[in-house]
Amino acid sequence: MTRFTKAHACGNDFLIVEGRADAALAVRLCARNTGVGADGVEFAEWTGERAATIRLVNADGSVAEISGNGTRCVAAWMAHCKGLKAGDTVRIGTDAGLRECRVVKAEGSRFEFAQGMGVPVIADKVVRLPDGTEVAGVVVSTGNPHFVIFVDGPDFEKHGRGWQALGLEICFHPDFPVQTNVEFVRVIDTNSIEIRIFERGVGPTTSSGTGTCATATASIAKRGLSSHLRVKAPGGEQTVDWAGEGAEILLTGPAELIASGEAW
Predict the structure, then answer these.
(1) CB of 167 within 8 A of CB of 184?
(2) pTM for the whole structure
(3) Which domains, ranges and CATH numbers included, belong to the chain?
């Protein structure tokens, strides 16, 4: 049997399992109808009193460098295990580097964290689709790859395509040999944006921590928006603080522990 804890961050749900990464196990556990159900499994190993290393395996069995929301879910699990309170920090080693999460609020199984998310790398890019359509966007690395597309309307359509269909097409485009996360961004005002997310290895998701960071930094760099930005996704809202080129991103958002149990 495998012991697990289930958590979510703005509806982006993960299972936390102690031990080394196991892709076959992750696929089985993440299955919505025949398993526990999740977007991915964070395999965690303690390395200190308030420190751990993690490896994320997506629902399809692929390994991701990092998930901002998944890392925050692990931080909530660690904080619960150690009885941490506001102001305390945990350190989590990911395949994209070390991330520090500071507890902002701790209320039972619900937490809020401010987490360092590294220094983004941003570049303009045009993706040419098989039918000749050229999709302009922004490539952003937040430890994992993103392609950010700005849209005008509340339906998030672009070039006559729904965002889910276009997200799928770009995710698997030959320009991205290891695939890419795809985000669609609608600017609301200078202090806030709204996004939709097609996540590599998962598909459409309610939220993404690294996607939130990617869209916010692209919006700040390319649209001149506020350096303190509210990012609204279907699953909830997070905030990003980024001072510009060379600065680290600070992501603030919730994480909640849902359940723990054993799976056969």
Answers:
(1) yes
(2) 0.95
(3) 2-116+253-263 (3.10.310.10), 121-248 (3.10.310.10)
